[in-house]
Amino acid sequence: MTDKNDNNGTSSVMQAADNSPLLQVSDLRTYFFTREGTVKAVDGVSFTVRKGEVRGIVGESGCGKSMTAMSILRLIDKPGRIVSGEVLFKGQNLRKMSRREMTAIRGKHISVIFQEPRSSLNPVFKVGNQLVEVLRIHKGGKRKAQREEAVELLREVGIPDPGRRISNYPHEMSGGMAQRVMIAMGMACAPDLLIADEPTTALDVTIQAQVLDLIRQLRDDHRMAVILITHDMGIVAEMADIVTVMYAGASVEEAETEALFENPLHPYTQGLIASIPVMGEVKERLDVIPGTVPDLIDMPPGCRFAPRCRARVEHGLTQCEIEEPHMIEAEPGHSVRCWLYEGEKTS
Predict the structure, then answer these.
(1) Residue 22, domain member (yes or no)
(2) Residue 335 falls within a domain, yes or no?
(3) How far is CA 329 from the centre of its chain?
(4) How many domains does the chain contain in total?
(5) Are 269 and 253 in contact (CB under 8 A)?
(6) How would residue 11 be classed by pLDDT, with cut points 50, 70 and 90?
(7) Can you give the residue range of the structural domain that contains 320?
(8) How far is CA 171 from CA 205, 304, 332, in A?
(9) Taking the model in full, what pTM does it have?
């Protein structure tokens, strides 16, 4: 897709070369300034997404996954603010774009599908009208052609009898159908990047598999990059090419998916993987990570995972409670934020 003739204020955004990063997020920090204190919702997140790649972002609820996506799209409302960091999309800094430019980027170049599709779709408008509105804003053209394209989009995402379904209201559709409509809206302008935020939440297992297969198929057909946000390590193992593990607002580990599951380095990642039920393996009880995610207003000193970390106790590490570790490359292509891997500083 080229943007030389784009009339929506995005002519400066040029097609990224296949081997260059599509999206670069560097040391992103988003804080919320409340009466109770400063909530460090995103506190040092960095990653790169390339064309056609699925980047998984995984972690417990409240660790900053969704807020990272909202920060990329610049959808942070007061009292929140992106305080530092850089977000480059096709080499252009999204943080320096005007509101008009960002409005044109959202939906056309970067699309997002949220969890709970019923709360994302407007209940008083037919799904066809909502799809046509996306096409009108970003592509223009005559309404008849837009409606025909909307029917084709519904067909592409696997909705049966799309010519009839286009006249349905959201409440007339199942959860799986509504999520497919959300995906159709996200794909309406053939975006370069799709952000899928917990896209299978509240769907039964069969529908979950169908939705994930659909995202994978659309990625393959359109060479689209995907950021897949989830708390489910099984979905990450199935879908992602490379994974960022987040904890309490920060990225704590990054690796290609196979390497991450074969050799998780961070104690938090080890705990997440150990808690996955294994078919055919009988356990008296599932492994759990003790404790809870810390209050983002009152973060513990040192490593934010230290109060829950068994490895800290087993290895007698005292530095963990004093100073936060840096993200380092412990193995080729495998980075981790943990004092276990900064040998000379852990004694």
Answers:
(1) no
(2) yes
(3) 23
(4) 1
(5) yes
(6) very low
(7) 266-345
(8) 21, 42, 49
(9) 0.86
